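Appendix B. One record, verbatim.
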Amino acid sequence: MRKIAILDDYIGVALDYGDWTALPDDAEITVYRQAIPPERLAAELSDYEIVVITQQRARFPRAVLEGLPNLKLIVCNGRTSNVIDHEARIERGILLCGTADTAQAAPARPPGYQTPRGLPSPSEMAWALILAVAKRIGIEDRVIRAGGWQTGFPLPLAGKTLGLLGAGNLGGAMVPVAKAFGMDVVAWSQNLTEERCAELGVRKVTKDELLSSADVLGVFLVFSERSRNTLRADDLAKMKRGAILVNISRGPIVEEAALIDALRSGHLAGAGLDVFDREPLPADHPFRSLDNVVVSPHVGYVTEHLFRSAWQRMAEDVAAYLAGAPIRVVTDPADCPPMAPQ
């Protein structure tokens, strides 16, 4: 029996969106709709030859890989994955196949990631969260459902300042909409240049100026060890009282405990969060119960088009491997980055 595990298929589309009919008769697929706790991952998957993952969900550090004696193939969406300890994977002879064609330059973004105008689709999620928090949608929705009516004032965006913590593809995509709302836009990151700001038509400021001037602060940095905890308690204390923070990048860029304190104290009016230190968010996490927080389950990048394309290609990868002719094998060292910090 060739045992295949499909992990973290939260929406339940893996078998429908991928054509698995080409697999041999002795192939057995198990789909996990719920996340496997990290401490149980090795024990749960110890019998599997193939594991299919989606990026940024289950993590495979050395300790987990060493507990998977039968694992021969990992398939991931994208060209590579930074949730795998590639050094340990290679040492153990575990093949990695992606969904991008490695024989040629991979597209900058997968199909379905961008809007028809070329803007990254996560920018839409950022605006959804900004509007939900600023207009008190979550709060008033709960109040109305409980029989109440009007409990506070929505925040008008016209004339306010949007602060971009990071002005790359995602941060830059926020600018046209912000200007359409009549907002001023300022930006900061460690590598941000005057040329990039001129290109976007925004004002480059220092980090302290960003924090003190932003009515809405959007987190758009790429996550790395350097960007971990870019916003700590002393940074959040420099923000305007009543400001809003939105994060669609990665949870650990903002020190979680400090953010919870700032929200509980009322120093920040609210937060819109699509990403968290631990995903899925634990059932007893404070973000689930804070009234001034709007949460979404890391779906900023998710589109049906993207998932249809990804699952079809992952099914092809598995079928090709079982047929003895693997495709889209990741071999370039540049496509095997260090494991992203948790």
